[in-house]
Design a protein that fits this description.
Blueprint lengths: L2 H17 L1 H7 L4 H29 L1 H21 L3 H15 L2 H16 L3 H22 L5 H17 L8 H4 L11 H31 L6 H11 L2 H14 L1 H21 L3 H8 L6 H14 L6 H30 L2 H39 L1
Helix pairs in contact: 1-6, 1-7, 1-8, 2-3, 3-4, 3-5, 3-16, 4-5, 4-6, 4-8, 7-11, 7-12, 10-13, 10-15, 10-16, 10-17, 11-14, 12-13, 12-15, 13-14, 13-15, 13-17, 15-16, 16-17
């Protein structure tokens, strides 16, 4: 198996373990507000740590940075498990998050650098990350009913193996290549800004979902394994899009793909709020494949293949600050307070309505842009 595929699968498998920390905090007896704060530590820390790791990586190399953050994560996850009270856990989660926040951004940056040098399709490689996430989520759902220590064992093992993987000699990378995507420079900072704002609004809903779906399942009397199954379903549901991501973007454009993701995630949240059984919940969760991955991939692709080169570094930093930082802050803390004031059901429903309204605004702006572009094209053709 090509090293780059295995590496991508490992880094997203570790992300699956992070998502299930909220279930551990819930069963440990923390309140929804406390869970919101604990789950927000990582994104808050990433606001500073992600730019720090990228800047340090430009000096000593991103491969070395990955060694540092992965090995440190493997050890620092354990104090989170051993902490007894909220204040102590908050401190340990802060330290752990400083290093863990670099795993996915630095990992994906290493992969993208490799693709640009040797050729390849990021959508197919990212698909391997989705598969790693799905397998890990499903496996954990099977064992966490016995003890949550397996969540922490899995985290340590996955990041440790990923650190060893990037030091291995690569073989068989031709299987990844195929036709490489050509970079253009027709992107604009205006469209990038609209897409970034749209991704923030849409993925905020996804962050709220990931932080509080364990609370919803527990309140509805579902088995503890349901959360792992949900995360496995959501990961598997991304596969169809990733198989045709580049083709779809080429046909309808990056902004249109993001708009679809924004609209569907609002619908999904509302449907989840009305589910009354684990089967209906699982069915609603299959819509995830038309939500998060569309918003994430459309903007990631736009930055690397549409924006002029001089904007790449700053755009990439903003992308990770928004995707891994601001969205989780808004979704976790805002969601925690909303649940305290309303209920978990009404919070999901409220986020869904807000998401659909935000999608409508971004769609209207995009429609104006597309209409303006067509008029300019007609004027140019006519002249």
């Amino acid at each position: 198996m090509p090293r780059i595929i295995f590496f991508e699968a490992l880094i997203y498998a570790s992300l699956a373990t992070k998502n299930m920390l909220s279930q551990y905090f819930d069963l440990a007896g923390y309140s929804s507000v406390q869970i919101g704060f604990l789950m927000t530590v990582l994104p808050i820390v990433s606001l500073a740590s992600s730019p720090f790791w990228f800047k340090l990586g430009s000096k000593i190399g991103e491969r070395r940075i990955y060694y540092i953050v992965s090995i440190a994560t493997a050890f620092l996850i354990w104090p989170v498990f051993l902490a007894g009270d909220f204040a102590t856990n908050l401190l340990f989660t802060f330290v752990f998050s400083f290093f863990f926040s670099g795993i996915v951004p630095i990992g994906d940056s290493l992969i993208m650098s490799r693709i640009k040098l040797t050729g390849g399709r990021f959508d197919r490689i990212r698909l391997c990350g989705t598969i790693g996430f799905a397998i890990t989520s499903f496996c954990l759902s099977m064992v966490l009913g016995t003890s949550f220590i397996w969540l922490f064992v899995a985290t340590s093992l996955l990041v440790s193996i990923s650190a060893m993987t990037i030091g291995l000699k690569d073989h068989g990378t031709d299987a990844l290549r195929g036709p490489s995507k050509k970079k253009t420079t027709d992107g604009t900072l205006f469209e990038y800004s609209i897409m970034t704002a749209g991704m923030f609004l849409g993925i905020t809903l996804n962050s709220f979902h990931n932080s509080f779906i364990p609370l919803l399942t527990r309140e509805r009397g579902m088995d503890v394994s349901a959360v792992g199954v949900i995360f496995a379903i959501t990961a598997v549901s991304e596969i169809p899009f990733l198989l045709y991501a580049d083709r779809l973007i080429s046909r309808i454009g990056n902004l249109a793909v993001l708009e679809i993701g924004m609209g569907v995630i609002g619908v999904r949240m509302i449907l989840i709020s009305f589910t009354t059984s684990v089967v209906s919940l699982y069915l609603a969760e299959t819509l995830h494949g038309l939500t998060y991955i569309l918003m994430y991939y459309s903007l990631f692709d736009y930055i690397h293949f549409r924006l002029p080169k001089e904007h790449l570094a700053s755009a990439q930093s903003v992308f990770w600050v928004v995707r891994s930082g601001l969205t989780f802050i808004a979704g976790s803390i805002g969601g925690g307070f909303l649940i305290e004031r309303l209920s978990v059901t009404l919070a999901f429903r409220s986020f869904g309505v807000a998401g659909m309204a935000a999608a409508g605004i971004v769609f209207f702006i995009g429609l104006l842009k597309r209409t303006n572009s067509r008029e300019k094209y007609k004027d140019t053709a006519g002249g």
